[in-house]
Amino acid sequence: MKAAPFAYVRPGTVADVVAELSQEGSKVIAGGQSLVPVLAMRLGRPAQLIDINAVRDLNGLALDRGALRVGATVRQRRMQREQIAAGVPLVRLALPWVGHREVRSRGTVCGSIAHADPSAELPAVAACLEATMVLTSQRGTRQVSAADFFTGALSTVAEPDELLSDVVFPVAKPGEGFGFGEFARRHGDFALAGVAVRVRTSEGSVDARLTCFGVSDVPVTVDVSQQLRAALEKTGSDPSRPDLQSALAAHTPGVAAVAVNTGGDSHASPGYRRRLISVLAAREVSRAYVSARLSESEERSR
Amino acid sequence: MTGLARVEDAALLTGQGRFLDDLDPLPGTLVAAVVRSPHAHARIRSVNLEKARRMPGVAAVIGPEEVLATLKPFPLSVKTPHPYYPTATDKTRFVGEPVAVVVASDRYLAEDAAELVEIDYEPLPVVVRTDQALLPDAPLLHDGSDSNVATDREFTFGSVDEAFAEAPHVVTRTYSFPRYSSMPMECYVVVADWRDGPDGPEITAHANFHGPFSMAPVVAGALGIPTSSLRLVVPADIGGSFGIKSGVYPYIALMALASKHAGRPVRWSEDRLEHLLASSAGSDRIMTFEAAVDDDAVISALRVDLIDNVGAYLRPPEPSTLYRCFGNITGAYTIDAVHIRARAVVTNKTPTGLNRGFGGQQLYFGLERLIDDIARERDLDPAEVRRRNLIPAKAFPYATPSGGIYDSGDYERAFELALDNVDYQRLRKEQRVARENGEWMGIGIATVVDPSATNIGYVGLATPVQDRTAKRGKSGSTEHVRVTVDPQGVVGVLLGTVPQGQGHATVARDIVAERLGLPKEQVRPRVEMDTASTPWTISSGSYSSRFSPLLTSALLEAADRIAESIKVAAAVLLEVEAERLELADGMVRVIGDPDRSVAFRHAAGLIHWDPGSLPDGFSARLYEEAAYTPPQSKAASRTDQINSSLCYGFVADVVVVRIDPETLTVKIEDLSTVHDAGTILNKTLLEGQVHGAITQALGGALFEEMTYSDAGQPTAGTFMDYLCPTSAESVFPLTSDHLETPSPLTRLGAKGCGEGSSMSLPVAIANAVADALQREGITVDSLPLHGNVLHELLTTSKGN
Lengths: 302, 800
What we know:
heterodimer, A: Uridine Diphospho-n-acetylenolpyruvylglucosamine Reductase, domain 2, Enolase-like, domain 1, B: alpha+beta, Aldehyde Oxidoreductase, domain 3, Aldehyde Oxidoreductase, domain 4, 3 domains, 20 helices, globular
């Protein structure tokens, strides 16, 4: 379990990174939490590794016009700990589910998204929040919405010479609430099924967005506003979370049937994954709605 | 360092452990990488090693040709035409089977060169499932054989057919037990050196091997050398095993051969991928149990049909999984008649071997599920069915029909204690309420006999009696120790018990210190196995919980002989008769007159420095070797009975589970376990063994399985898919209690205690899950049990 030979460079500027990245067979390494095992098992054999950890410009974590801009070397653990990231609550809900603390101490937010594992949490969060991916190459910079970014298991629209230099998450607005949950056989494993939820409430109108992961080759986002409204018709607009959850449970199997699109494996058949998505969706949409209502009322009383 | 429970801990906790991967015992050692088969079954058309050999930095590359030129097949435990070499020679028979070895200056280079080895394979039809391996048109693994059945024996003890004919009820069930393994922290490591001496090859091999040392002649047999020409050295810390490292031995032969070709010592450190792919595993088993039962649910006879899937070869010590529990095959019950059919089939999976509990978890999964199924059919509480069948305390020593002699026990009391500790009646009430609320709560029980100090003679049973050579039987269960005293009176204990981390040194220190009346600090155990200097015989090793019953018995004998010598020396100093002396508080003193005394160290010093003052004829030595050989461990009888272990402990587990109706997760809510391992030598270490066995059982019951696709590709080849329980999954309320019915057969009354719940808890959990889902019309007949499995069972039962 030793990597095949590769060249190693550690440039100091973004310009040098993208110059190196234009060399054929180059691969970026930041936290290495996915790449290093791939190298050790010789499942990937890049000609050159570009270590971006010395590039100061890629380590930014800053608010920028109502959005949180996360640079390519920002560790997941830093997102959990720095106050500035609290503006994106869904990321903070999701991060405790990402591997274990040791993994989060090395792993980066951008790295997880660029790796595009269908069972990973952060790609689903990006999709749910309609985050923006910033791709940088010698040819310039382009922005891609999360909805267009993921093209399949472990594949994205990023070209081989492009660096995912930043991911830009919208900061939560008043009247928004979030939910995140997943199911794995053991704590810290990749999810068999998981959901990220954003609910917006505003003066009686509701909008609910559910992103499922671990159930297809890319995160699957479903608009569940209609299901939420149907449940609220039964419970009234200020239900307790358990009441709303059980009302939603009548509708989530239909959502799961649409979202789950995988052949299954020895840990979870498609049928079991549908069961899990159905359960998780009811739990987390109800959580997000209750929290959105709270946020809305807090805003009103301000 | 004080305050630590074990003498071993300070070194381990400060990174001072002596693991073989850290040691460099032979200067100039090169590094090997193993080229493995990607096919589950394929004929090897050709092997071309030239490109790899030409790569700079490569010292040697060996393949089937070199193996066949020098090695013989490993001697097998039974006469079966299934030749087993350390690499494939004609065909590959499982994914991961070694085909070639590359020796280079470092592992990176070796792996680079391994990619240059060219092997032309012709893929062959694959068989992985036990039932399919038995079909008449199944692909055959071994050309010289007309079936995949490697061994097939039947045994009848008592009036089985009569009992079934008379029984008003017969309960028959088929169960399957999965393949899972142990996960030591360090994988296999071998450093081997081949030298040509005046009388043939001399092999020195360092390996994290822990026995049974019956594998030493097996390796020597493959190398074509006397066992004494194979010097085997085991480091003090082997990085855990739980049985699996007994399977390192084929690599000892392989790396010795690699060293012959490289002209230098060769190191091979197995990585985790190799370990999961191709090291070993507990065998999976299909089994049918049939009980003759009377109206009171008392079992009069049993028919047991066991089929082990041992993978590609019947690798020694297999088929021992079938026979290790032979003497206790009727478990904790008064069953007087039993029919046994014991078969092993070869398939395109990794060969099997030792795994904590060895044979016990497989056997008891069938027997204890059957008890619950009898309870269900007879509409009785499963605890009550057990009560009616347990061997009563007054019946000990108890002879089982298959030859076991249970040395001691009080099963009824231990069982009631386990029930009382969770308030069983209250639990059943709670369960009734839960059921009324539609909740899935289940209570599972297992009561098992826990064999320890294996009598390796059971392997002989795989050979029919007419083929067993008279006076060439196999038996035995001996352990050895050497105790020494230095000129300052410090007592050394040389332990060749090759511990896997159990704390042998701690227990040995405490026993010797107490026996010789010394402070613990004055006793210094040393863990060291070097077959050139450590006392051993082929039954040596740490397996089948041998240390507590056997080694400690040898230790007392050696310590007592040391005490006699010390007394003789002290008698000279005190001018009294040695018989009037006793050892206490670091002194040798006159019994009844403690002021007349000399220090132990002064007495020891006399023997070293002034032997001339000792009585005439006294042998001035302060080293004593002792071997404990229990007479109860005999070879199999001509009627095929065998007392397959020396000691038989007892375990009762009562486990409570609740199943989440949404995610179908099985949650353990409570566990009561009672162990009777005879005299307790060290309570902390005993609890450690109980906790470890429970966690390992948890893995097998709920998480771990070595799965294969129908094409023979392993589908749990990394820790992403082979799921060991972590601390997050292993926390639940536990009441662990103990009974002590001393063994009359060991010097301290101690029995083994390392495996108990790893045999009993998997089936107890299965019984609990079956109990929780009793009203759902499903059958629980296999493991592991997790959400996906339950989802499939529940949806199938509803006909969707």
